[in-house]
Amino acid sequence: MKSLVLERKDELSLRDFPIEREEEVLGPRDVRIKLHTVGICGSDVHYYTHGRIGPFVVEAPMILGHEASGTVMEVGSEVTTLSVGDRVCMEPGIPDPNSKATRLGMYNVDPAVRFWATPPVHGILRPTCVHPEAFTFKLPENVRFDEAAMVEPLAVGVHAATKARVKPGDIAVIMGAGPIGLVTALAALAAGCARVYVSDLAEKKLQIAESLSPAITGVDARKESIAQRVRADTDGWGCDIVFEATGSPKAAAQVFEPLAPGGCVVMIGGQPDPISYDAGAAMIREARVENIFRYAHVFPRCVAMLASGAIDVKPLITRKFSFEESVHAFETAAAAPPADVKMQIELPQ
Ligand SMILES: [Zn+2]
């Protein structure tokens, strides 16, 4: 079937691609899905521009895409919760149900997890896919396909806010106003934060951040120190939580500076190389440090919050392309236009 294929680093093509793997066979507890909307993720772009992410190396042509929504077109014989015609979004990582990590409730860190568009597993920038019922979530009528394709990045923010153990009235700092920083801001507010400061170097991104909620304050890191600003606004105390969502070693080195005593730092941004952080600054605060890797079973919560209006991701969707324009879409995403947050690709229906 016609798919967006990363042939090798820097080379994409939209071409017929035979998927004859066993995962395309409909098992009794699988559903076949007609894809509708697929978001372009930073990781997809990184595979395109670098050919690898850490230990995951593209060694053979691979279909990109993992942030998706669609419609159920066929169900396996033992499927009970989904029917043909249901609108759904899909969690892209499939763990081994019998693994120790899964049984401990943290299947996202299962080394055996199979995740779309992570070599050697194909992604879903293609007309159809087969997916387990257990990782396919039905959409309420008022959640659109484009919002539903935002559930995957949103899940990262919701998992981060969960790990932070946000309490009502907390003050949070988010370093980085990219898609993950912004969904984390929305998740932190939905979890009860009174105020969220978002720091970034790009003014346009800060404007988008502030447009999401009156409880979000943008801080231009080129002009103002986030630590000084937060201390000035909190009588010198600091913030309760810092979410690091840049993946920049420079930002990570300063991650404890705005933090109040007893506060929590959540490391979200990927760090391909070892970094140093100020352990002394962490110590004198008795800071709690959490690390997250993707998410574990938060898709239903994300869908529920989109449906209720507790979280609105629509302003984050800044550009849409047709499937035919996929290669151009990736070239555009790789150029990282400052006014864009999330770009999406719509498949023909
Ligand atoms: Zn993603």
Number of helices: 11
Q: What is the assembly state of the chains in this entry?
A: single chain
Radius of gyration: 20 Å
How would you name the CATH homologous superfamily of the largest domain? Answer: Medium-chain alcohol dehydrogenases, catalytic domain
Question: From the 3D coordinates, which CATH architecture of the largest domain would you assign?
Answer: Alpha-Beta Complex
What portion of residues is helical? 25-40%
Could you tell me the mean pLDDT?
96
Global structural class: alpha/beta
What fold name goes in the CATH topology slot of the largest domain?
Answer: Quinone Oxidoreductase, Chain A, domain 1
Number of domains as seen in the coordinates: 2
Name the beta content range. 25-35%
* Number of E-type strands: 20
Uncertain runs are: none
What is the CA–CA distance across the termini?
A: 15 Å
Instruction: Tell me the name of the CATH class of the largest domain.
Output: Alpha Beta
Tell me, what's the shape?
globular
Bound molecules: zinc ion
Give the biggest sheet.
7 strands, mixed
Describe this protein's structure.
- The chain is α/β, with parallel strands linked by helices.
- It has two domains: 2-150 and 313-346, Quinone Oxidoreductase, Chain A, domain 1 (Alpha-Beta Complex), CATH 3.90.180; 178-291, Rossmann fold (3-Layer(aba) Sandwich), CATH 3.40.50.720.
- The chain contains eleven helices and 20 strands.
- Strands 3, 7, 8, 11, 12, 19 and 20 form a seven-stranded mixed beta sheet that branches. A six-stranded parallel beta sheet has the order 15-14-13-16-17-18, sandwiched between helices. Strands 2-1-6 form a three-stranded antiparallel beta sheet, with no helix packed on it.
- The radius of gyration is 20 Å and the shape is globular.
- The two termini are 15 Å apart.
- The relative contact order is 0.15.
- The mean pLDDT is 96.
- Residues 41, 43, 66-67, 152-153 line the site of zinc ion.
- It comes from Fulvimarina pelagi HTCC2506.
- It holds the Pfam family ADH_zinc_N.
